[in-house]
Each structure stands twice: as C-alpha cells, then as structure tokens.
Amino acid sequence: NHDMRDKFSDFMSDPVMKPKYNISLSEERELALQRLQRICDNKFISVLDFRDNPLRIFAAHELAAIIDPAMTTKMTVQFNLFGGTVLKLGTERHHKKTIAWN
C-alpha cells in the first residue's frame, strides 16, 4: 500500500483537494462528493479491497481523513456499510448488480 500512498500524495495537489473554509453546508456536501468521486475515479479504493487487500481500505480512509472528514464519512458509508455488506452477505446476483461497476 506504500505505492498507493505515494500516488495519493501527488493526487492531493488536485485543486479540488485544496482546503476550503467558511463555505455553506450545501457547498461542503458538494465538495465532499466531488472529492470522493475523484478518489474513486483514480481507483484509490474499491469494495473488492475488503476481500483482496483489506489494509488498502484502512490506508484509503487514513489518507482521505487528511483531506476532508465529511468526505471520509461519505466514503465509509458507501464502501464499508453498503459495499462491504453486499460483498459479505450478498449473493452472486447482488455482486453482479452492485459491485461489478466498482
């Protein structure tokens, strides 16, 4: 996961990752979503990491929390609560419908 950490540190120079202060709640929510989308688009986290490389999940959360705790909460809900549950308790049909896009 050191390689991911190195790439993430370069990734943090993306303008959307710059801290923004004194913004409205709706702007904060939108910014958190944009940041999470960028993290996903750059493949820093995958639901399949729970099965294939669980330590990568921890590393992704740790790095995300440096940028934006609100975004990290969104990531936790999406990947840990939803994705992890489908991966662990879902059937092959559920996996094809919800995890295949990941």
Structural class: mainly alpha
Rg value: 14 Å
The ordered string of helix (H) and strand (E) elements is HHHHHH
Mean pLDDT: 88
How large a portion of the residues is in β-strands, by DSSP E?
Answer: under 5%
Gross morphology is: globular
| Distance linking N and C termini | 19 Å
> Number of helical runs?
6
Largest sheet: none
Poorly predicted residue ranges: none
Instruction: State the helical fraction.
Output: over 70%
What's the arrangement of secondary structure elements?
Blueprint: H1 2-11, H2 25-41, H3 49-52, H4 54-67, H5 69-89, H6 92-98
Helix pairs in contact: 2-5, 4-5
What does this protein structure show overall?
This protein has helices at residues 2-11, 25-41, 49-52, 54-67, 69-89, 92-98. Helices cover 72% and strands 0% of the residues. Helix 2 crosses helix 5. The longest helix is centred in the C-terminal third of the chain and has 21 residues, at 69-89. By secondary structure, the protein is mainly alpha-helical. The two termini are 19 Å apart. It has six helices and no strands. The model has no long low-confidence stretch (mean pLDDT 88).
